[in-house]
Amino acid sequence: MHLKSLEIVGFKSFARKATLNFTSPISGIVGPNGSGKSNVAEAFRFVLGEQSIKSLRGKKGEDLIFNGGAANVASATTSGRANRASVKVVFDNSTRMLSVDFDEVTLERVVHRDSSNEYFINGSLVRLKDIVELLSSAHIGASGHHIISQGEADRILNANIRERREMIEDALGLKMYQYKKLESERKLEKTEENMKSVESLRREIAPHIKFLKKQVEKVEKVEEMKRLLVTLYREYLSAEDAYIRIEKARIAEERLAPANEMAKLDADLSAAKTILAESKRADAQSMEIITLERALALAREEKDRISRELGKIEGAIALTERSIVKEKEKQSREDSKTVYLRDVEAIVNRIFTIDSLEEIRNICREFVASHRSGDALHTAARLEFDKELRELGEKKSGFENELRAVSDRATRAHEEYTQLRVKIEREQDTNREAERNVFTIISRQNEIRTVLTRLKNEEDKVLLEEQAFRRELEDARMIAGREAIDYVVVVERGLVPARGVQEERRRTIEKIKFRIEDSGAGNTTDIMKEYREAEERDAFLAREIIDLETSKASLVALIADLNNRLDVEFKAGISKINAQFQYFFNLMFGGGAASLSVIREKKRKRKSDTDLSLIDAVPDEMDTGDDMVEEGPEGIDINVSLPRKKVKGLMMLSGGERALTSIALLFAISQVNPPPFIILDETDAALDEANSKKYGDMIVSLSNYSQLILITHNRETMSRAGVIYGVTIGADGASKLLSINFDEAVKVAK
């Protein structure tokens, strides 16, 4: 790969198109001061992607564009200012040093008055990043060891040890490793920040997960209790349903015959009473029989009515007593104690009448203590239940009194009825046969009525049990779900459990219901969903930490590897540079010694002082050990020894000797990793005639490895160039080019 040409249009002092063709290993650019020859070097920097306007001797992008010149009086012409500046460089890429599949590669950069820039590769618009990446593959950059301007040659001598190391790393092509290392360190720092952030998030959600886990455990226990409750409910409801069905069927079956017989007896009795009433022989005794029968019937009806009412009241009393037991069990748990609204309203109204904050606190404490006291059933609730029981008791007592009165009437009527029956039976008169039939019918009716009353009571009891069963069904559906009431009824008498077994099941169900109500698990679906989401979030964060730890380990390993490669390649490069440095130094001074050494910066802390102060970087073997010494980063020291002089160290060199030393070092560096071309912008300005000869010899030697573009006004340097471009400044302020090709002239002369 070599440089073919440079085309400049509107850049700085080049108002019109100027083309430089580099057909010789060494090309020279000469001209008087102010002609614009150094603008050629800056054009190279510009087109290769330099972003520092200051290094191009400007303040803004507009300063890089030709700004016009004065009118030429003789020709009456003037060069107007340009609106854009462009620089185009062409490379021969037949060796494919640039990583594109073209034999010739053209790079172009354009800057406009608004400071906007455009970049092109072979005419295609690209990004600056694309230019930089393409050139980095050939170790070319906008600024580096291959573009050395006037005054920069001595910079490597004046730099500190760390700056020298950076320059040499750049020349050795190790910047790529530095960039990768810097990028890896940034990624590592970002990874560590992310790890801290993720760990912080995990710490934040950990208490919530712990809380949710306890809630989930409650939910799981509740679900387990619900599953048990479903099983118990199915067994209980199935048995209860079967029991009610069987009892209803039994009662209906047992009632059928007595009811039919009662209907027949009612008809017979009616007929017998009709006979007695219509008989001509009817007397007072017959009418008395009819009256007693009516009185007995009314007493029986009244007694049945009162018995039913008493049954209802006794059922209500039993239900209330059961509610009291439930309430006591509920109130025995502190977390489920009931506070009635009227109690709260009463204490609030009382508090509103008190101004003392301490008294209000005491009242509140007493209120809480009274509701948490050993009295399992709250006073208000107890009073309510007591009132209800008292009212039911009063009703029951009233009906019992009525029942006793009715029973007394029935007893007296039955006694009269019995006496009359005995009297009639003693009489043998056939006319009394109808009266005896009435007594027989009434007696049988009493027996059947007793059976029907018993069946009616049993039916009422079954109806109450059925109502309780319906309520239990609704409770089961609400608490345990629809599956609890999804049972199969097996209506077989032998399979229906005893009532004692059912009662035990019911008590067990009630206990489990209380536990579920007291669990306080809340909405199980929402809790489980929130817990799953929190667990998934925590698991995701845990995986993130693992991934970040893996990434961190990879980055740490990569940084260690880059450090190792940097160290190895840097020290190997230093060894190669030293060989070339010694060669060029001998060529310059006719002997002597020159080398680079890797040293470590020292930070000395005196025993009596806590402040750290930088000291001169010295090799490890020169440390006296008197003070506490801390090591800093590695750098480069330059060691020189002139022949036939007791001159050692850079500080003792004269200006010319420093110039020759810096040039020898720069040339040595360029030989370790030769760039395709080197631009030397008046680096020979400080050399005298004798040293210029040595400088020229080095240039010739250097041209065997890199193409050279020399910007100079040194005659000795000019004599080594195969092509010379002269730069002049016109009356309009624009630079112009003149070229002389010595290589072609020599061929023609031969």
Quick overview of this protein structure:
This protein is an alpha/beta fold and 750 residues long. It is 59% helix and 13% strand.
What features would you describe in this structure?
- The chain is α/β, with parallel strands linked by helices and 750 residues long.
- It has a domain at 1-146 and 679-750: Rossmann fold (3-Layer(aba) Sandwich).
- Helix content is 59%, strand content 13%.
- It contains 16 helices and 15 strands.
- The chain has helices at 38-47, 128-136, 155-158, 161-171, 175-278, 284-331, 341-352, 357-372, 379-426, 433-480, 499-519, 524-589, 655-672, 689-702, 715-718, 742-749; strands at 2-9, 18-21, 26-30, 84-92, 104-112, 117-121, 124-126, 147-148, 593-605, 613-614, 628-641, 677-681, 707-711, 723-729, 735-741.
- A hairpin with a 4-residue loop joins strand 5 (104-112) and strand 6.
- Residues 72-76 and 609-618 have low confidence and may be disordered.
